[in-house]
Amino acid sequence: MAQPTKPKPQVTLRPALAKDAPQIAALGSSVFSTSFGYSMPAADLQAYLESAYSTSSLSRDLSNPSVTTIVACPTYTPETVIGFAQLTRGTSEPCLEGCEQPVELQRLYVSPDFHGGGVGRMLVEEIEKVAREEGFVTMWLGVWEENFRAQRVYERMGFTKVGSHDFVMGSCVQTDWILTKRL
Question: Which of 19, 38, 119, 159 suits a disulfide with 179, CB 3.0-4.6 Å?
Answer without folding.
Answer: 159
